[in-house]
Amino acid sequence: MPLLSTVDQLDFAPSRALVAGVSGSGKSSLCRRLSRKLDLTYVELDSLFHGPNWSVLPTFELEVDRFIAQNRWVTEWQYDVVRERLLARAQLLIWLDYPLHVVMRRVVLRTLIRGFAHQPLWNGNVEPPFWTIFNNPEHIVRWAWRTRSSYPPRIREILLERPQLPILRLTRPSQADEVVAALDYRLRSSTTS
Fold it and tell me: What is the pTM of this model?
């Protein structure tokens, strides 16, 4: 199946969906919206991955396996160790392929807000001071910059290896609104038919 550019080409409302994109592109926000509209269970993969002091939780893979064993869910497509498992169960992959300036503006703004507010994230973690962007190669803003071009080759690989999986490519944030509305319409139409 080729990359889809509009949800009009989808003839179903998925019960298991993934959202892919660079850090800061809006994966979690779209997952939350889809969860509410389509009545899908949502868990933020970061909450399963990050333990106290940004350690990796040893239960991560087991928790992901439990989550995707369910029949109705949506989550982010990230963390190489579970990407294949997520894909194997998904009925739809939505790729947030936004322009670099959009993603970088979002990730910088989000990081600044979280840092200044000392907003608790997963398991008590908070964003480090923004100045650590200069000495921490794993800083989220540097991570987003470094991984910005990693998705096109991954998507090409999926198109070759899993041609039956619909991949919906969004190239601007306003398309996310269109997707949510159209999928909600499809779900309502299928339940009234």
Answer: 0.91
